[in-house]
Amino acid sequence: MSRETGTGKYEQVLERCRRLEPVPTAVAHPCEESALAGALEAGARGLITPILVGPAARIHEVARQRGIDLGHTRIVDAPHSHAAAAMAVDLVRRGEAELVMKGSLHTDELLGAVVARETGLRTGRRISHVFIMDVPTYHKVLIVTDGAIAIAPTLEDKVDICQNAIDLAVSLGLTRPKVAILAAVETVTSRMPATVDAAALCKMSERGQIVGGVLEGPLAFDNAISRDAANTKGIRSDVAGDPDILIAPDLEAGNILAKQLTFLANADSAGLVLGARVPIILTSRADSVRSRIASCAVAVLAAHARRQALHQAT
């Protein structure tokens, strides 16, 4: 479907959010125009109910200078960015927010508060980052992970990276998301540890250590994305040529892949951090409005899936 007509892949995600109620969202340190306007626009679209956490006087000043109407948006005063990150996390711990959104502070500041051992939002999972990408040359939303947090993930880290991505894909409406585990080649060799990890992950999935998805790997990028390339190599797989999720072997590969798709294939990318108690919406000043709104929409779907899981557990 055409992105120009407003009926692209992200728009399908937004459509799924229309029947859902807005999710209370702690926006950490929205003290710059794009961060403040992005949170309020997501609120105006009915995706989130923003709670602005940061220096109240500075937030009001940014709004005044940029002609942004704060309306009746709740503001929680915090003296600086570190305090804003800690307060945003505390709002989740107190049950007043179900999402955290990055404002105009460094990602490390926000994640430092998220992973703080006594006061953060840790779970038994390793946190990981996902790019949710709308690639014009690909036929559906594509999740790329991890390209921002796990620098050199161990096999155990990759289990959580896979499971986080699968759970997100399920919250987007997929029944059995297809997971391609990337390496440089499609054969297993001890000289390339990523291929051994890929094979182990597939076996772990068979044994129920990773659930909810269909895993295949190792796959080189060409035979992961192209069915013709996979057929040429003699690979017979439901995943090859049709993955929902690409698991990169390390951060550098994942980051390069996502940025190549953005700058060479004109893809839009939304960003989330998963594996904490709640999803963390990561946006950047360079993000398009479309990408910002898509990040919020995906997080809203994940938050509602979490609500449902908690309700079923009780």
SSE succession = HEHEHEHEHEEHEHEHHEHEEH
Instruction: Please summarize the sheet with the most strands.
Output: 11 strands, mixed
CATH architecture descriptor text of the largest domain: 3-Layer(aba) Sandwich
User: What is CATH's topology name of the largest domain?
Assistant: Isopropylmalate Dehydrogenase
> Which stretches are poorly predicted, pLDDT < 50 over at least 5 residues?
1-6
* CATH superfamily heading of the largest domain: Isopropylmalate Dehydrogenase
Task: Tell me the overall shape.
Answer: globular
Strand order of the largest sheet: 3-2-1-4-11-10-5-6-9-7-8
Structural class of the secondary elements? alpha/beta
Spatial separation of the terminal alpha carbons: 40 Å
Question: How much helical structure, as a percent, in the residues?
Answer: 40-55%
Quaternary assembly: single chain
Look at the structure and give the mean pLDDT. 93
Please report the total strand number as a whole number.
11
The fraction of residues in strands falls at: 15-25%
What's the total helix number?
11
Total domain count:
2
The CATH class of the largest domain, by name, is Alpha Beta
List keywords for this structure.
single chain, alpha/beta, Rossmann fold, 11 strands, 18% strand, disordered N terminus
Outline the fold blueprint.
Layout: H1 9-17, E1 23-28, H2 33-44, E2 48-54, H3 56-66, E3 74-77, H4 81-93, E4 99-102, H5 107-115, E5 128-134, E6 142-145, H6 155-171, E7 178-182, H7 193-206, E8 214-219, H8 221-225, H9 227-232, E9 245-247, H10 251-264, E10 268-274, E11 280-281, H11 289-313
Parallel strand pairs: 1-2, 1-4, 2-3, 4-11, 6-9, 7-8, 7-9
Antiparallel strand pairs: 5-6, 5-10, 10-11
Helix pairs in contact: 1-11, 4-5
